[in-house]
Amino acid sequence: MNKALEKIPELKKLPNSSPEFKKWKRNTEVVIENSFGEKSRHIGHFKNIPFGLVVFEVGTPKSEWQKAYLRGLESAESILQSMIEEVEEYWEDDVYENSNQQKNESGQKDINNSNKNVFIIHGHDNGTKEKVARFITKLGLTPIILHEQPNRGNTIIEKFEENADVVYAIALLTPDDVGTEKNCQKNLKPRARQNVIFEFGYFIGRLGRKRVCGILGGDIEIPSDYSGVLYLKLGPADGWKMDLIREFKAIGIDVDANLAF
User: Fold this and answer.
1) CA atoms within 13 A on the CB side of 63
2) What distance in Å separates the CA atoms of residue 10 and residue 100, rounded to the nearest whole number?
3) Which residues of 142-178 are buried (b: 16+ CB within 10 A; e: fewer)?
4) Regarding the domain delimited by 102-260, which CATH topology (the fold level of the hierarchy) does it fall under?
C-alpha cells in the first residue's frame, strides 16, 4: 500500500479521466483485497470514496469535477495511511514475529522466515525461469537457481544440497519432455524433466508441502503422487503472482503486494 500512497501526489497533477488514475484505482483495490480480504471493511471504505461529483447538473464545469477528484484523492490518502499504520502497529506482533520460527506439520526442522532465499526448480524453459526469478527479486527475495551457483568442486547432488537452505521452493513444471506407459507408446503426454520432479519431491520432504508450489506451464501431466501440493498456472493475466504472494503471507514470509505491479 505504500506504493499506492506514494503515487497520489503525481495523480493530483493529472485529470480525473486519466488512464493512470484508473490503473492506480484498480491496482489499489487489488492490493487492499489481498491484504485484508475481499469483504473487509477496508476495501469497503476505499470503494466508497467519491472521486467525482455525487450530485451535479448538466453543464457543470470541468473544474468542479476536478475539485471533487482531488478531494477523493485526499480521502484515499488518509484511508491508505490509516491502513498502513494498522498493519505496522498490529500485524508485526500478531503475524510476522510469531511466525518467524515455524515447525511444519511433517516434523521438518524449524524454518526461519527471515531467510530470503527461494529455490527455483526448472527445466529447459528459460523464459519462464527468468520471468519467475525477476518476480521473486521484485518482492525483495533472492531466487536461487542451481546453475548460477559456484561449483566449488562439488558433484551435482552435493551442489544441490549445499544450496537447499531456503525458505520456499518453486518448481516450474513446463512441457520439456514427453512420456507414457510402456504399453501405450502412441499416447505421449507432455511432462516436466526428471530433475524437476526429483527436486520437487526433495523440497516437499525438506520444507513441507506448505512451502513448496508447482507452477504449471501449459497442458502438462501432473505427477500422480503429489496430491495436496499447491499448483499455480501460468497465463497471460499473471494471476499466479498474487496467488504466490498470498501463499507467502499465509506462512509468514513478509512481502509487499504493491511490488507485484
Assistant:
1) 0
2) 36
3) ebbebeeeeeeeeeeeebbeebbebbbbbbbbbbbbe
4) Rossmann fold (3.40.50)
Between strands 101-102 and 111-112, the pairing is antiparallel
150-207 confidence digits (pLDDT tens):
888 888 888 888 888 899 999 999 888 888 777 777 778 888 888 888 888 888 888 8
Q: What is the pLDDT of residues 132-160, one digit of tens each?
A: 999 999 999 999 998 888 888 888 888 88
The single residue listed with the C-alpha cell 494471476 is 239
Distance CA 45, CA 43 (A): 5
Helix (H) or strand (E) holding 202: helix 194-207
Antiparallel, parallel or unpaired: β 212-216 and 189-191: unpaired
Extents of the domains making up the chain: 2-99, 102-260
Q: Quick one: CA dihedral 30, 33, 39, 43, positive or negative?
A: negative
Q: How many CB atoms neighbour CB 29 within 10 A? A: 15
